[in-house]
Amino acid sequence: MNNFIKLQTSGNNFLLLFNKLKLNKMFKIINKKTGILCDQIFLIKKNLNNTLKIKIYNNNCSKAYNCSNGIRCISWFYLKNNKKKFLKIKIKNKYIFCIKNNHIHTIFLNKLFIKKILLRINNIFLKVFFINFGNNHLILLLKNIKNYYLKKILEEIKKIFNNIVNIEIIQIINKNEYFMNIYEIGSITTSCGSGMISTFYCLINYLNINNNIKINLIGGENFISLKDKYFEIISNINICCIGYL
Q1: Statement to judge: residues 152 and 59 lie in one domain
Q2: How far apart are CA 95 and CA 47, in angstroms?
Q3: CATH number of the structural domain spanning residue 220
Q4: pLDDT digits (tens, 9 = 90+) for 39-93
Q5: Do 77 and 139 sit in the same domain of this protein?
Q6: Which residues neighbour 181 within 8 Å (Cβ) at sequence distance 6 or greater?
Q7: 35: alpha, beta or left, given left = phi > 0 and alpha = psi -120 to 50?
Q8: Rounded to the nearest 10 degrees, how much is the dihedral formed by the CA atoms of 175, 176, 180, 184?
């Protein structure tokens, strides 16, 4: 038997498992018809000294090396009703720190690779931002998120990058509020924590915006801020279900 917990935030669903699984078994678990639908699977191994070692898989069973919303859900689940006030999460060779005081804070350090690039799509030149935050993001700012040419732009970007980047389309409402659509592996998704952080990092560096903003997604409202040298996202987190497989 493999115990599982399913958590969600902003429409993103995450399946937490606590025993090793073969890929064929994992594929059956996340199959829409025979299993439990989710965006990512987290295989969790607890170490000493309040450290969780985790492996992340996408819902097509490919490996992932970052999932900020999923990590926030894990830190919330482990610290919410626990007397301990500190948790360390290890993904591959990096650590993420979680602290509980009045609230639960998941600390994403302010160290991202960013590159401004110019893309030519047919006769249109677009200024976009490429950011690596454990996964790759391409950020595009538009005056209207429902732009007539957006579908064509997305198709061409997918051809150029072969679906190896997540695409964030941003519409600025004012300095404190933004609309954002996110495309992961070619299809639109309700939310993406690393996409929000990457976008916020881009806006701070190139548009000199405020350190606290609101981002509106399909999955709902999110508030993101820069505090000292780390990012923080605030949105509701819930338990969907607990069971065993």
Answers
A1: no
A2: 13
A3: 3.10.310.10
A4: 888 999 877 778 899 999 887 788 888 889 999 999 999 998 787 888 889 888 7
A5: no
A6: 145, 168, 169, 188, 217, 218
A7: beta
A8: 110
> Distance between CA 216 and CA 26 in Å, rounded?
32
Q: How many domains does the chain have?
A: 2
- Predicted local distance difference test score (pLDDT) of residue 59: 79
Residues spanned by the domain of 73: 3-109+234-244
Same domain, 224 and 212: yes
| Separation between Cα atoms, residue 165 and residue 237, nearest integer Å | 26
Q: Are residues 36 and 104 in the same domain?
A: yes
Give the residues of the chain that fall short of pLDDT 50: none
- The 3-state secondary structure of the chain reads CCEEEEEEECCEEEEEECCCCCHHHHHHHHCCCCCCCCCEEEEEEEECCCEEEEEEEECCCCEECCCHHHHHHHHHHHHCCCCCCEEEEEECCEEEEEEECCCEEEEEECCCEEEEEEEEECCEEEEEEEEECCCEEEEEEECCCCCCCHHHHHHHHHHHHCCCCEEEEEEEEECCEEEEEEEECCEEECCCHHHHHHHHHHHHHHHCCCCEEEEEECCEEEEEEEECCEEEEECCEEEEEEEEC
pTM reported for the whole predicted model? 0.86
pLDDT of residue 222: 93
Residue 64 near residue 185, CB atoms below 8 Å: no
Whether residues 69 and 122 share a domain: the answer is no
Cα–Cα dist 67/50, whole Å: 20
pLDDT (0 to 100) of residue 149: 75
